[in-house]
Design brief:
This protein is an all-alpha fold and about 130 residues long. Helix content is about 30%, strand content about 0%. The protein has four helices and no strands. The chain starts with 11 loop residues before the first helix and ends in a 54-residue tail after the last helix.
């Protein structure tokens, strides 16, 4: 099978170690550039977030909070690390949960979109 780079075929433990190793810097960038994350991650020593257990201790911004966040800080609720304009000229947005009429809700409802992400679907021969 053809892969874009060797990282796609590495051992899961190796992949997780790299991701968790990069996590503190990623979180610091989010806290530095996005006001909502600056607030939610304030006072947390991000250098200690290097495991799944440590990640699970971070506060979660719930979907139910997004509307209020967006009203307070337009257009992205303080969650974007880029400013509007030159840094971010286009935004691709979801219209919400998509489901064909009469289809089964849940994971199966996402089936039609999975091939767009490279997941083989019915009749794909994969």
């Amino acid at each position: 099978m053809n892969y874009y780079d060797a990282r796609e075929t590495r051992a899961p433990a190796e992949r997780e170690a790299e991701i968790l190793g990069r996590l503190p810097a990623f979180l610091a960038l989010a806290r530095e550039r996005a006001p909502a994350y600056a607030e939610s991650l304030a006072g947390i020593d991000l250098s200690t977030i290097t495991s799944r257990a440590a990640l699970a201790t971070l506060p979660v911004i719930r979907k139910s909070e997004l509307t209020a966040l967006q009203r307070q800080r337009r257009p992205f609720g303080g969650l974007a690390t880029l400013g509007w304009g030159r840094q971010c000229a286009r935004v691709f947005a979801s219209p919400g949960h998509l489901r064909a009429r009469g289809s089964t809700p849940g994971l199966l409802a996402h089936g039609p979109g999975l091939p767009c992400g490279g997941v083989p679907g019915r009749g794909s021969g994969a």
